[in-house]
């Protein structure tokens, strides 16, 4: 209902708003059904991807059909308590995510080069 009023008012959305949400601080044992129950209240969901690896546990991506539904979900679910954990709901931003990945990859390359050539970063 709130999304209908947003559309009628022809509200301009900030540039970071998109249909894909990045959710952090999820309980590790949360199921897909529970995610659909929580996020489905705010609109039609196209896809939910829950992190399963060691690095991605406790995170998920939620893709809504409509951008206004995604905005409503962010507004209502940021700080929402699930199993004594407060959710962090953000708009997915490709540039920021790839920078984190690139940084990690570069650090690994530097470590490999230091080991290969016997270089230490410790002061002697």
TrEMBL record:
Alphabetical keyword list: mRNA processing, mRNA splicing, Nucleus, RNA-binding
RRM domain boundaries: 19-94
- Write down the InterPro entries for this protein, in alphabetical order: Nucleotide-bd_a/b_plait_sf, RBD_domain_sf, RNA_proc/Spliceosome_comp, RRM_dom, SF3B6_RRM
Mainly localized where? nucleus
Domain of life of the organism encoding this protein: Eukaryota
Q: Does the keyword Oxidoreductase apply?
A: no
MF term (GO), any: RNA binding
Tell where it localizes. Answer: Nucleus
Instruction: Please indicate if the UniProt record lists RNA-binding as a keyword.
Output: yes
Report the GO terms under cellular component: catalytic step 2 spliceosome; precatalytic spliceosome; U2 snRNP
Q: Gene3D superfamilies, alphabetically?
A: 3.30.70.330
Q: Which GO terms describe its biological process?
A: mRNA splicing, via spliceosome
Q: What is this protein called?
A: Splicing factor 3B subunit 6-like protein
Q: Which organism is it from?
A: Hibiscus syriacus (Rose of Sharon)
Organismal lineage = Eukaryota, Viridiplantae, Streptophyta, Embryophyta, Tracheophyta
């Amino acid at each position: 209902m709130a999304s209908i009023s947003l559309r009628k008012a022809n509200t301009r959305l900030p540039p970071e708003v998109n249909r894909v949400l990045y959710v952090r601080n999820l309980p590790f044992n949360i199921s897909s059904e529970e995610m659909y129950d929580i996020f489905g209240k705010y609109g039609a969901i196209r896809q939910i991807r829950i992190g399963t690896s060691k690095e991605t546990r406790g995170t998920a991506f939620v893709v809504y059909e409509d951008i206004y539904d995604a905005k409503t979900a962010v507004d209502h679910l940021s700080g929402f308590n699930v199993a004594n954990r407060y959710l962090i709901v953000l708009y997915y931003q490709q540039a920021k995510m790839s920078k984190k990945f690139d940084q990690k990859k570069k650090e690994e390359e530097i470590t490999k080069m230091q080991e290969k050539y016997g270089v230490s970063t410790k002061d002697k």
